[in-house]
């Protein structure tokens, strides 16, 4: 709303800027989410946060090992297979203090992995009761997480007049500021894998 806000930021000025923007014909309103949609969005955001913490923890553990002569391949699977061996090997030269810290970090990572798996199961159960998600998940290459993200973004497609409008909403179509400027594709939204959603946008607006 900064383009429409002509004064310093206050609640009053923000409300005026929103009201001014809403009165313009070329400004499109966003879809109003239902309570169920907001609950599912909370699950999605919770999973994203858990995934971020898991990646940060695994990278932290992997980054500590080379300083003491231990190197593990990239990937969570390699870490899960390698850390127990590192902890149990009494002849690898790791100081006892570091071994104790590594054990705590590893135990914390296992808790994070379990938490992330539980959230994924909850999401799978949630999309089973959602009609839009059940239609989307039938497309090849779209799993439960991608299905949820796309359903939350587009809903039933009632806010879009065409498949192109729906595609533009999720960053699949090029954008162009001026006729002389070469069109460039929007960056994919980080929460969902947009490359998989080409055929689904037009389907939702039928």
Describe this structure in words.
With 206 residues, the chain is mainly alpha-helical. It has 2 domains: 31-129; 138-206, no CATH class. The chain has 8 helices and 2 strands; from the N terminus they run H-H-H-H-H-H-H-E-E-H. The protein has helices at 11-22, 35-64, 76-88, 96-128, 131-136, 144-154, 163-169, 198-204; strands spanning 174-175, 184-185. The chain has a two-stranded antiparallel ribbon. A hairpin with an 8-residue loop joins strand 1 (174-175) and strand 2. Helix 2 runs antiparallel to helix 4, helix 2 packs across helix 6 (144-154) and helix 4 (96-128) packs across helix 6 (144-154).
Précis, in short:
By secondary structure, this protein is mainly alpha-helical. Helices cover 58% and strands 2% of the residues.
Total E-strand runs: 2
For the sheet with most strands, the description reads: 2 strands, antiparallel
Structural class, please? mainly alpha
Query: Radius of gyration from the CA trace?
Result: 23 Å
β-strand amount: under 5%
- The helix fraction, in percent, is 55-70%
Q: Counting H and I runs of at least 4 residues, what is the number of helices?
A: 8
Task: Give the helices and strands, then pairings.
Blueprint (H helix, E strand, L loop, with lengths): L10 H12 L12 H30 L11 H13 L7 H33 L2 H6 L7 H11 L8 H7 L4 E2 L8 E2 L12 H7 L2
Antiparallel strand pairs: 1-2
Based on the model shown, name its key terms:
disordered C terminus, about 210 residues, about 0% strand, mainly alpha, two-stranded antiparallel sheet, 2 strands
């Amino acid at each position: 709303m900064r383009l429409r806000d002509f004064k310093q930021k206050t609640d009053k000025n923000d409300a005026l800027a929103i009201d001014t923007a809403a009165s313009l014909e070329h400004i499109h309103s966003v879809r109003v989410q239902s309570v169920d949609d907001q609950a599912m969005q909370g699950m999605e955001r919770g999973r994203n946060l858990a995934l971020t913490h898991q990646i940060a923890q695994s990278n932290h553990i992997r980054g500590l090992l080379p300083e003491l002569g231990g190197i593990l391949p990239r990937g969570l699977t390699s870490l899960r297979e390698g850390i127990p061996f590192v902890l149990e090997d009494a002849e690898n030269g790791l100081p006892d203090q570091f071994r104790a810290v590594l054990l705590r970090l590893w135990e914390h990572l296992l808790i994070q992995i379990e938490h992330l798996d539980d959230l994924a199961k909850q999401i799978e159960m949630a999309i089973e009761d959602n009609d839009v998600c059940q239609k989307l998940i039938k497309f090849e290459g779209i799993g439960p997480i991608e299905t949820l993200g796309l359903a939350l973004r587009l809903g039933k497609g009632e806010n879009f007049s065409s498949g192109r409008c729906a595609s533009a909403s999720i960053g699949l179509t090029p954008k162009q500021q001026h006729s002389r400027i070469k069109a460039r594709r929007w960056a994919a939204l980080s929460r969902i894998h947009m490359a998989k959603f080409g055929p689904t946008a037009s389907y939702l607006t039928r």
